């Protein structure tokens, strides 16, 4: 499944004529691993969290933030006018995105997930992110996240 998702992402970036680079590398699981492997600051690596919103009526959203930041679930709950926001269960993440934790790319709209992007992502003109596998990354312009269907928080 991950290879299909990776190809979907690379096809999307090419079709949209977005300037990007794709790299294969050693295994990455954490933001710290990514910064080391990619040779860029932690803040220039984005992580993509799949969050469960409102336990009873659980829907999943994606939240994209820099690798050097932690999600503030109380602030997210308030911003989303939700009762609760929490990390989704790993099985749910894979069911929703087709990707394992640590490989979810920040392209939720391609995966059918509403996506919110932290304003902190825009500290850089370009960022690195997963391309749906532990061994593939893409460098993309942050301006991509200012377009619909992405939402900023």
Q: What's the structural blueprint in terms of helices and strands?
A:
Layout: H1 2-15, E1 21-24, H2 31-38, E2 46-53, E3 59-66, H3 73-79, E4 85-87, H4 90-97, H5 108-111, E5 115-117, E6 126-130, E7 136-141, E8 150-152
Parallel strand pairs: 3-5, 5-8
Antiparallel strand pairs: 1-7, 2-3, 2-4, 6-7
In summary, what is this structure?
The protein is α/β, with parallel strands linked by helices. It has 5 helices and 8 strands.
**What letter string, H or E per element, gives the SSE order?**
HEHEEHEHHEEEE
Number of helices: 5
- The quaternary organization reads as single chain
Sequence stretches where pLDDT stays below 50 over 5 or more residues: none
Say how many strands there are.
8
Write down the overall geometry: globular
Report the end-to-end length measured between terminal Cα atoms.
30 Å
Average predicted local confidence, pLDDT: 91
- Major sheet attributes: 5 strands, mixed
CA radius of gyration is: 14 Å
Spatial sequence of strands, sheet with the most strands? 4-2-3-5-8
Bin the strand percentage: 25-35%
Bin the helical content.
25-40%
- Alpha-beta content class: alpha/beta
């Amino acid at each position: 499944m991950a290879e299909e998702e990776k190809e979907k992402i690379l096809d999307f970036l090419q079709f949209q004529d977005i300037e990007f680079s794709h790299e294969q590398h050693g295994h990455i699981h954490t933001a710290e691993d990514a910064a080391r492997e990619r040779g860029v600051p932690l803040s220039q690596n984005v992580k993509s969290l799949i969050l469960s919103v409102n336990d009873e009526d659980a829907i999943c959203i994606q939240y994209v933030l820099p690798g050097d930041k932690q999600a503030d679930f109380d602030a997210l709950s308030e911003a989303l006018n939700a009762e609760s926001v929490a990390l989704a269960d790993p099985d749910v993440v894979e069911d929703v995105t087709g990707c394992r934790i640590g490989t979810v790319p920040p392209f939720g709209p391609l995966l059918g997930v509403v996506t919110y992007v932290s304003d902190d992502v825009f500290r850089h003109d370009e960022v690195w992110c997963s391309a749906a596998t532990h061994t593939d990354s893409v460098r993309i312009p942050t301006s991509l996240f200012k377009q619909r269907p992405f939402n900023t928080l």
